[in-house]
Amino acid sequence: MAIISEFANKFKEFWKEFKKQKIGIVGLFLLILFITITCLAPLIAPIETLTRWNDRTYWEDLPEQVPPEWINMFSSEKYATQQWLRLSKWYERITEVGKAEYLYATYSYMYDKPPSELIFKMTIRCYKPEKPATVIIKVLRPDNLTITLVQIVLGKGTLPEGREFIDIKVRITSKDKMFRQNVLSFVYKIDPEGASSIATLELFDPMYAIFSKAQKGMLFERTAEPLKGPYQFLVSVFLSDSRDTIVDAQVVIVGRVYGLLGTDHMGRDLFAAIVWGTWAALAIGVLTSLISVFIGLIYGVVSAYAGGKVDEIMQRICEIMYSLPVLPLLILLAAIFKPSIWNIILILAIFSWPGISKVVRSMALQIKEMPFIEAAKVYGASRFRIVFKHILPQLLPYTFAMIALNVPGAILVEAGISFLGLGDTTIPTWGQILYYAQVHMATIKGMWWWVLPPGLAIALIGMSFAFIGSALDTILNPKLRKA
Amino acid sequence: MGFKRYVIIRGFNATVTLIIIAFLISVLFIGTLDQIIKAQILGEVQAYVREHQREFAGMSPEEREQAIKEYENRLIKKYGLDQPIIIRIFIYTWRILTLDFGNAVRMRTAAGSQKVMDIIIERLPRTVILFTTAEIFVILFGVFIGLRAARQAGSSLDRGISIFALITNSLPMWWFGMLMILLFSYYLNLFPSGGFVSLPPPTDPLGIFLDFLWHLTLPLLTVFFISFGGFAYVVRNIVLETLQEDFVMAARAKGVPEHKVIYGHVLRTAAPPIITMSLLGIVVSLSGAIITETVFSWPGMGLAYWIAIEQGDVPVLLGLTYVTTIVFIIAMVLADILYGILDPRIRVGGG
User: Fold this and answer.
1) Which residue from A10, A262, A454, B278 has the highest number of Cβ atoms inside 10 Å of its Cβ?
2) C-alpha dist (Å) from residue A143 to A147, A227, A229, A382
């Protein structure tokens, strides 16, 4: 108990000192914030962000490279947001060749810029897959004009043995060639001049035509005038068997803006990525720092205590390590070995202990000459005991400062490696987000939401440790406090 | 220990370090190095076949095969690929030490040379010019501000510079570069987003020079902004420590004018570590700024790294890493020696 209360007293004393360091408090606040984000990550953002980071099918419903939703608050023109609408059953009709099912959904369009894509998704439980099914999709606009968007005959499959039915997943998007073709021929009736100026179908964005007033120039972003109001999506499916059903049908209104921080080139939610990236950044920074301070501490103390030839040799090795340019060598290692996050931590730690061991050694040299070490020697304490029981505990307070001060460097180097595309690509990291931003020329295209937040996160997490370390350093090194 | 001996020991240590690194690279990447040589041999064999097409036309297929095989074996012998692994490691170590990195896989110089060393030599000056210029500004402003902060220790300028240093030290320089492009190139359209010449390039000498400066501005500002706070803070600490020494107090007590105390006594004592720090700063910024160059498409060593990584050009990567290491280590030794010249106290003792 005595030990605990002594420790508590010491801690109270220390906390009193620490509280005076404003910068340390800021750092501590930031750190607690980041730790909270890491702990709450599963609640804030789906875990699939981590587990299915590179899985294109997981992200396929999201828009690519769009800004965050809240820009609508600052922009005079409102951008359509992401919505998932259920296609409800209107009625069904049994015919002699099968069954017809009619579905609908209402979308109230109140924006100035249309959605970036429309996706129709449904699962058809099919009892006779060898016979084709037909899907027709129409949209009824607020001005009572109807556009036939899609009429498609679904391919034939075969029933697997022993099964009564199969579930066929259907996914039709406005990027499909037929969809564009249909919308273009609709426009042709209203603005033939504009429609004929479209050179190839690939360059044609059908969304403006669907959501704009039926007049000249409705095709193009600059000239189109938004037609606000309710849009009815009507989906008719002609099934080949009367038992067939549509299990799950929805229309995805893919936004022109998305979420809190927008998306990247694969439609990945950048807010979720940054939340989950906190985990990697903390792990890399703290683990690397812990390992390298541990190695540096042992190495420095042993070198100082051993003295003589051993010290000389250990210092030579340390100097060689110290004179290496860390980043270029790390790049080479990473480029050839394609390491996982754990290997990156290990390699980083191996390169960053020499500086720490130098500081430790010079401190240990001073402690070595103190009277209480002499006393321990006279008592006949073993070398091992002197090093681990008497010298190391004296250094312990400084190690906390060293651990904190070494974290930002580790985070920066890892971010740099990830930025070159050499990090662990299976999980979201902040450096990697910026790598893709660079590859897709986000800066030149003004995609600030892709560039600003990840870098800010790297900077803030680095700062939190730098601030704490600096405060600890000021408390523990009275010489610097004078200033 | 005499100064000469000190220099020799430092130089010897550096040489040993370079040999050890070359050796370690050979051991770690032996598989990759073998592949590079194999690719090179294949290239040379193909060239040989192309050159000797006419002679081969007169031969039977078996004879032709024989001749090609013979030539290939000669090359394998020449490059030591038939030697056991231990010998190969030493061969590769020697090749790295003599800066023979062979040919690049895809990269070329402007003149079309595919030799790795030519590629590096073409790009090295561009990197040096960017980062040395930036570092000169950093040193000038850093010394000026650092000195003022130390003299007014505890003032708002002093505290401001400490916090500024802490913040800029935590910012990734390359990310700050991306922000600069976003702001000054995309939104304000004041500076180019990358490269180092306009297309088409200006023809008159003054135009070329101004165009170069125009392209240099953004990367220069980025390096300056990120590096200068940290440097000023170091200068402040060195000067502050000197200010607390007895001889400064003695000088002040004698009634020496304050500016003479600062520029005569303090700065003279503080100069050696500041100069060493400056030299180290230049080198560290050289290797650390590899990534920043990429952001600005500045066609130096850094961009070469990026291209080599993207294209999987391992020989170029090896060459770049080793040359950077050499530059880094030589500069470290120079900094040490310079420190020794300026501050004779340090020469005694090896550590």
Assistant:
1) A454
2) 11, 8, 9, 93
Tokens matching residue A21: 């360091």
Under-50 pLDDT residues of chain A: 480-483
pLDDT tens-place string over residues A368-400: 888 888 888 888 888 788 888 888 888 887 888
By CB atoms closer than 10 A (0-12, 13-18, 19+), residue B239 is buried
**Contact residues, chain A, for B287 at CB < 8 Å:** 325, 327-328
**Of B305, B271, B266, B289, the residue nearest B135 (C-alpha):** B289
**Nearest neighbour of A335 by CB, restricted to B21, B317, B332:** B317
Angle, alpha carbons A434-A435-A437 (nearest 5°): 60
pLDDT at B350: 42
Give the contacts of A221 (CB within 8 A, at least 6 positions apart).
A205, A208
Radius of gyration of chain B (CA): 27
Which residue, among B71, B243, B221, B98, has the nearest Cα to B158 in the 3D structure? B243
Please say if the pLDDT value at position B347 is more than 60.
Answer: no
State the pairing for strand pair A88-94/A146-154: unpaired
Are the Cβ atoms of B290 and A443 closer than 8 angstroms?
Answer: no
Q: What is the mean pLDDT of residues B299-317?
A: 89
Distance of alpha carbon B30 from alpha carbon B33, whole angstroms: 5
Angstrom distance (rounded) from CA B290 to CA A340? 22
Q: Find out whether A142 and A284 touch, Cβ atoms under 8 Å.
A: no
Confidence at residue A247, expressed as pLDDT on a 0 to 100 scale: 86
Region at B53 (left for phi over 0; alpha for psi -120 to 50; beta for the rest): alpha
On whether any CB of chain B is under 8 Å from the CB of A336, the answer is yes
3-class SS shares of chain B: helix, strand, coil, % to 5: 80, 0, 20
Angle of helix B301-311 versus helix A326-337 axis, rounded to 10: 10
CA–CA dist A425, A439 (Å, integer):
14
Beta bridge partners of A237: A101, A135
> What is the least distance, in Å, from the CA of A427 to any CA of chain B?
20
Residue A148 has which token pair?
Answer: 């036939």
Phi-psi domain of B154 (left: phi exceeds 0; alpha: psi -120 through 50; beta: other): left
Q: Do B175 and A459 touch (CB under 8 A)?
A: yes
Does residue B132 carry a pLDDT above 90?
no
Tokens of A60: 């396929």
Rounded to 5°, angle at Cα B165 from B159 and B168: 140
The string of pLDDT tens digits covering residues B290-306 is 889 999 999 888 899 89
Q: Do A312 and B153 touch (CB under 8 A)?
A: no
Give chain A's radius of gyration (CA, Å): 32
Neighbour-count burial of B222, counting CB atoms closer than 10 A to its CB (0-12 exposed, 13-18 middle, 19+ buried): buried
The tokens describing B340, both together, are: 């020794």
Percent of chain B whose pLDDT exceeds 70:
97
Q: Quote the tokens at residue B207.
A: 């135009």
Q: What is the percentage of chain B residues whose pLDDT exceeds 90?
A: 21
Contacts of residue B38, Cβ cutoff 8 Å, sequence gap at least 6: B81
Structure tokens at A432: 């990697």
Handedness of CA B320, B326, B332, B334 (dihedral sign): negative
Does residue B296 contact residue A443 with C-beta atoms inside 8 Å? no
Here the tokens at position A122 are 């449904």
Instruction: Tell whether ipTM is more than 0.85.
Output: yes
Burial class for A336, CB neighbours closer than 10 Å (0-12, 13-18, 19+):
middle
- The residues, any chain, with a CB within 8 Å of residue B54's CB and separated by 6 or more, are none
Q: How far apart are CA B333 and CA B14, in angstroms?
A: 7
Say how far apart CA B111 and CA B126 lie, in whole Å: 16
What are phi and psi for residue A451, nearest 5 degrees?
-100, -45
According to DSSP, the residues that pair with A166 across neighbouring strands are: A126
A338 at B interface, C-beta within 8 A: no
